[in-house]
Design goal:
Blueprint lengths: L7 E2 L2 H5 L8 E8 L5 H9 L11 E5 L5 E5 L4 H4 E3 L10 H15 L9 E6 L4 E7 L5 H9 L3 E2 L15 H8 L3 H24 L21 E9 H44 L25 H20 L8 E10 L9 H4 L12 E10 L7 H15 L3 H30 L3 E6 L6 E3 L2 E10 L6 E8 L2 E9 L6 H21 L3
Parallel strand pairs: 5-6, 10-12, 12-15
Antiparallel strand pairs: 1-4, 2-7, 2-14, 3-4, 6-7, 8-13, 9-16, 10-11, 13-14, 15-16
Helix pairs in contact: 7-12, 8-9, 8-13, 9-11, 9-13
């Protein structure tokens, strides 16, 4: 039973994700230590924040002009919780069986609009559940926050999971400015980089990446899919980040000491000359007091730097395998990276996401960055991939490219409607080579209704890209779901191995390279 009273219009981003060309569903696979019980799952869902949230209890309706609205309705849990009570295949590898199941859902099974746009598939034979949520309901940060609100820490059953960084981004940003020169330089860089990257973004409407063995294109979103998982250790990523940062700090200190030595020697020579000129005995004293600061943000590495270094190295390995000697060194492929625009960079407390005055309101609040990745033949210094990724990401961070893409999309949706906005967005996707996103998950092991969670993985349904990558971290691990158009990339497991092999190679190079 539904009522037209109090219908709420969709956000511009929500309307975009409902267009046929960009119809996007998020799939979140949660692995469990024990097979899930259907009745227990229904009980958890019935008492969860999810069924209290207006987005998850509303139907999608259209008025006489075709404009989409949310309309409150009553939830029938039995229609949303779907039991798959048989093994998907005879394959002993649960991960591969579940990946094949999700890949099939990505192209062949849309969500029904006669109920709220979410489902929960329960797979006892494979000890996992698959949560399907339409992207119009929210982005990865919103949905991860909602999921974690129903979980507890494995080490403390009464405590909620750690939900990300709580420091105030604005305050930490402002504390970095030390004088007006840095403020002026930062402003100039922001303006220059923003103009350059905004121009590149607009040009991508007409300029396409050169075709390679991983290129997609128009209508590729309809092609059959395969899904593979690349597994990483966050400790390895942090080790790479720390080793490279320490090397740069040491080099920085070494250069400072060299300068000080030269300065000391020049002062000493002047003092000696002064003593000799005055026919004084060679018994002069020199007292020097100098404060040296280091460790500025220019030398810091982040996990994203390492991730994009791994992606660049892994793609180069894969392209070498698929088309040896076909691409020149330095050949550029362009990806689309999704960036969270909320003020707090980590996961958001659910109550904050529900408040409109916090800057962290519920829904889709992310921008897009053009992410250039450069092909280089294997055999060189693995750290070169990381250095290029770091230099590129530093420039992106200093620009407003992600805010530009978000606000332009919002403007187009508001003034020209979803058809025009979708056409332009679709062209940018078709003219680039891949999509990548990274969502931070819980920092420690968690449980759902007392059942330990073994992994958390996410991906979206098909896009015109032949390659989409979504990484989610959980308790010191990071799993990247690699969804491909299997007629273009028939071997995603090998591609996943290319990414997995790149990280230890980066780690070995970072730890062994001498200063």
């Amino acid at each position: 039973m539904v009522s037209s009273d109090g219908d709420e219009p969709l956000t511009p981003a929500g309307r975009l994700f409902l267009r046929p060309e960009m119809n996007t569903i998020i799939h979140c696979v949660v692995g469990l230590q024990h097979p899930p019980d259907l009745d227990l799952i229904k009980s958890i869902v019935s008492s969860s924040f999810m069924v209290q949230h207006p987005r998850f209890t509303s139907l999608l309706v259209r008025d006489h002009r075709g404009t989409e609205h949310w309309r409150k309705t009553k939830i029938d849990i039995d229609r949303h919780v779907i039991l798959v009570d048989h093994p998907l295949t005879n394959d002993v590898d649960d991960s591969r069986a579940v990946n094949d199941y999700v890949a099939e859902l990505s192209v062949s099974t849309p969500l029904s609009t006669d109920k709220p746009l979410w489902e929960l598939h329960v797979l006892p034979a494979h000890k996992c559940v698959v949560l399907r949520i339409h992207h119009a309901l929210g982005d990865g940060i919103s949905l991860m926050s909602l999921f974690l609100a129903s979980c507890r820490r494995a080490a403390d059953p009464e405590a909620l999971p750690s939900m990300g960084i709580s420091s105030d981004r604005k305050r930490s940003r402002s504390s970095g400015w030390r004088n007006w020169r840095e403020i002026l330089l930062g402003f100039v860089k922001m303006v220059v980089f923003s103009l350059v990257f905004a121009a590149e973004f607009v040009l991508k409407l007409w300029i396409s990446d050169r075709k390679t063995p991983i290129s997609g294109g128009a209508d590729v979103e309809l092609w059959p899919r395969k899904l593979a998982t690349a597994r990483f250790s966050l400790e390895d990523m942090k080790a790479v980040k720390k080793a490279v940062a320490d090397r740069l700090d040491a080099k920085h200190m070494f250069s400072v000491l060299v300068v000080l030595s030269i300065l000391y020697c020049s002062i000493e020579v002047k003092q000696i000359s002064h003593c000799i000129s005055h026919k004084r005995a060679f018994s002069c004293s020199l007292s020097t007091s100098m404060e040296v600061g280091h460790g500025n943000t220019s030398h810091k590495r982040t996990i994203n730097d390492v991730l994009f270094g791994v992606v660049s190295s892994g793609l180069s390995r894969y392209l070498d395998y698929r088309s040896p000697n076909a691409l020149p060194n330095g050949f550029q492929l362009t990806g689309l990276a999704m960036v969270n625009l909320r003020e707090q960079p980590g996961l958001q407390e659910l109550c904050d996401l529900m408040k409109s005055n916090t800057g962290s309101e519920w829904g889709n609040k992310f921008g897009m960055l053009l992410l250039p990745v450069y092909y280089h033949k294997t055999g060189g210094n693995p750290l070169d991939y990381l250095k290029r990724a770091k230099a590129m990401i530093d420039r992106k961070k200093q620009s407003l490219e992600a805010h530009f893409s978000y606000n332009i999309g919002d403007f187009l949706m508001s003034w020209f409607g979803p058809k025009v906005a979708c056409m332009l967005n679709y062209r940018i996707v078709c003219n680039t080579s891949f999509t990548i996103s990274n969502v931070i998950g819980p920092l420690e092991e968690i449980t759902v209704a007392g059942v330990p969670v073994t992994y958390v993985r996410a991906n979206t349904s098909s896009l015109p890209h032949a390659l989409t990558m979504h990484m989610t971290s959980y308790a010191g691990k990071a799993d990247m779901q690699i969804l491909v158009a299997k007629d273009i990339i028939p071997d995603p497991e090998f591609l996943a191995k290319c990414f997995e092999d790149a990280l230890p190679e980066l780690k070995e190079a970072a730890l062994s390279t001498k200063i």
